[in-house]
Design a protein that fits this description.
Length: 162
Amino acid sequence: MPVPAGYSRTQIALHWVVVLLILAQFLFHEPMAEAWDVVEDGGAAVTSAGVLLHIIGGIAVLVFALWRLALRMTRGVPALPANDPPLQRLAAHLGHWGLYALMVAVPLSGMAAWGGGIKAAGEAHEVLKTLLLLLVLVHVAAALWHQFWLKDGLIDRMKRPG
Ligand code: HEM
Ligand code: HEM
């Protein structure tokens, strides 16, 4: 796998578009949660505009995550900051892979719930989206720690193509 000096313009754009999409999924989940309550009570699955937005936003996260993984394998990503101790590099590595896994698993579980009417998938979706939220919070804390404590300018790597 190649190891470029920085993230490409496309990799950076995809990172920030997905951040906005995931934020929107968490802020505007109410119509989907309500529609799902109806399904769980034995009613029909009604795809209102709000439900459709949740589906489109979620599937976009999935497509963009797969695109990012493909870019990771073809173009590669920059090496983790060289000054970080091995344990910290391992944590960053696991954290990034965890985020990718959840960006795939959260939409897939939602699709299985809504498309297949599988109640267990709905429960899995709830657990997985909470894990995603927690991991994102750790990821953001790590990015801010690098930026303001270690002062290694890490966030610039996700701003300026290299
Ligand atoms: C990264 C993408 C996604 C995120 C972050 C996300 C997030 C959420 C959140 C925060 C809820 C509310 C859960 C609650 O009431 O506590 C929810 C519910 C739901 N979402 Fe998603 N969602 C995503 C993708 C999808 C997709 C693609 C589908 C279907 C095509 C879907 C279907 C559902 C369903 C059926 C529910 C109600 C069941 C439940 O509460 O787990 N979601 N989602
Ligand atoms: C929904 C929220 C987010 C998700 C899902 C997410 C996901 C990811 C993933 C998967 C990577 C690894 C990219 C790769 O090497 O393949 C990454 C890198 C990065 N993210 Fe995020 N991110 C989120 C929010 C943020 C925010 C809010 C910040 C800034 C405060 C941020 C800053 C960074 C930085 C600086 C890197 C590069 C790390 C490095 O060069 O080693 N991310 N992000």
